[in-house]
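FAQ

Q: What does a record look like?
A: Structure on top, sequence underneath. For example:
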């Protein structure tokens, strides 16, 4: 067993352990941290497969942006763990069936995709459309394949992500009764006469002077 195969087994074992802990972790923050570990190990496996572009994108986009955002959201939310555990055993058979089906499909795909014992040979130089010999670019080859052979699946995935984004915005902007929101349009259209009302009040009159020789404080109050 060479060094590359040893790294592959190490990355795979850590990836499987992290993915298992994502599902079984009781603390949501720990689950997010294990998910970040799983993504880092997946990027290492892609580096072993000479897919440098995918590995860098996974680290920059998911570990650098998406997962950090998930971590902050989970830490700021007040998640009731006891309420989440109430329906675990109720939905466990359905979850087990779905998991078994996904595992079976992945096994069929992996068995069919790894029948060849030899890895594909990546050339150092290729010839472009103009007939010139240029250095092979993994990113350029991926973009060419993605926007030619897999163009329609890419557009379908883009539409699904756009619908999910619009749905997330719609759910976030829904009116809630427990939140205090101010309509900016009402603030812009405000007028002074709608907020301030002038009321005419008679001027204050002075109290009549007491007769000479009488003390106002000594007078008994009227019943």
């Amino acid at each position: 067993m060479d060094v590359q195969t040893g790294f592959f087994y190490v990355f795979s074992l850590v990836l499987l352990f992290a993915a298992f802990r994502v599902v079984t972790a009781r603390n949501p923050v720990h689950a997010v941290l294990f998910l970040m570990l799983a993504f880092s190990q997946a990027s290492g496996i892609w580096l072993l497969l000479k897919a440098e572009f995918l590995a860098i994108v996974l680290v920059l986009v998911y570990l650098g942006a998406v997962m950090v955002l998930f971590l902050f959201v989970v830490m700021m939310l007040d998640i009731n763990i006891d309420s989440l555990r109430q329906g675990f055993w109720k939905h466990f058979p359905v979850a087990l069936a779905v998991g078994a089906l996904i595992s079976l499909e992945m096994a069929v795909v992996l068995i069919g995709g790894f029948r060849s014992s030899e890895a594909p040979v990546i050339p150092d130089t290729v010839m472009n459309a103009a007939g010139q010999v240029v250095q092979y670019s993994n990113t350029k080859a991926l973009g060419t394949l993605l926007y030619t052979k897999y163009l329609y699946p890419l557009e379908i995935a883009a539409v699904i992500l756009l619908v999910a984004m619009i749905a997330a915005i719609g759910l976030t902007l829904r009116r809630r009764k427990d939140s205090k929101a101010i309509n900016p349009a009402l603030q812009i259209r405000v007028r002074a006469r709608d907020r301030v009302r002038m009321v005419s009040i008679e001027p204050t009159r002075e109290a009549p002077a007491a007769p000479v020789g009488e003390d106002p404080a000594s007078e008994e109050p009227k019943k």
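Q: Is there anything notable about this one?
A: DSSP finds nine helices and two strands in the chain.
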